[in-house]
Amino acid sequence: MKIPQHIGIILDGNRRWARAKGLPTFEGHRQGFENLKKISQYAFDKGIKILTVYAFSTENWDRDKQEVAYLMGLFRLLVNKEINSLTKQGIKVNFFGRIEDFDKDLQKSIAKAQAKTKAGKNGILNICLSYGGRDELVRAFRKIVSQGINADKITEDLISKHIDSAGLPDPDMIIRTSGEQRLSGFLTWQSIYSEFYFPQIDWPAFSSRDLDLAIEEYNNRQRRFGAN
């Protein structure tokens, strides 16, 4: 069994899971947050080196204000409390996206969390917050232009050095829970040769066994990268 080095997960279905159980939307997000802790630990224990999760998109700001406020509370819990457990596990945490969109106190906590875990050697957890794949590319191109680089010097490698995941390998596999079969702007640049997997399971119900099944499916595929 070959373990993917890098897996991306679109954490979809929290609200759907809550509605199906007659629970408030907030409870779906809470359970989704708890499941992220369990699945990430299982993934690293299994030998996955990098886990990138889509937690909050640039479009999610348009949701109900109370829902957004609740999610902000979960993010604060993550960077101010749960980060201690990740530090002990030796997990390095990165945050991708427009971090400047968040309140100043949360921005500071995110920066502290990254600094606190930067020495982690047992795995990398990338959390996408206020993130969109096209926005990531726009930000990368702006960085390149601001450096005065001529157009004829712009290469794929140069762009890769200016995106949020600079220095990391592209994801081998991308999982989107809840059965929706689209990426919705997740890792637009990085996903060109990723294997896609769309289980009909909402994120709060996605288990370690479901991750095992995804890895089994990954092993059943032939990755040619454009070759015959």
The CATH topology comes to: Undecaprenyl pyrophosphate synthetase
Count of helix runs: 7
Output the strand order for the largest sheet: 3-4-2-1-5-6
How many strand elements? 6
Describe the biggest sheet?
6 strands, parallel
Class by SSE composition: alpha/beta
Radius of gyration: 18 Å
What is the CATH architecture term?
3-Layer(aba) Sandwich
Helicity, in percent?
Answer: 40-55%
Could you name the CATH class? Alpha Beta
Number of domains: 1
Q: Low-confidence spans: pLDDT under 50, at least 5 residues?
A: none
Order of helices and strands: EHHEHEHEHHEEH
End-to-end separation: 23 Å
The fraction of residues assigned to DSSP E strands is 15-25%
Essential attributes:
single chain; 7 helices; 43% helix; six-stranded parallel beta sheet; alpha/beta; Undecaprenyl pyrophosphate synthetase; 228 residues
Description:
It is built from seven helices and six strands; from the N terminus they run βααβαβαβααββα. It is of the alpha/beta class and 228 residues long. It has one domain: Undecaprenyl pyrophosphate synthetase, CATH 3.40.1180. It has a six-stranded parallel β-sheet with strand order 3-4-2-1-5-6, with helices on both faces. It is globular.
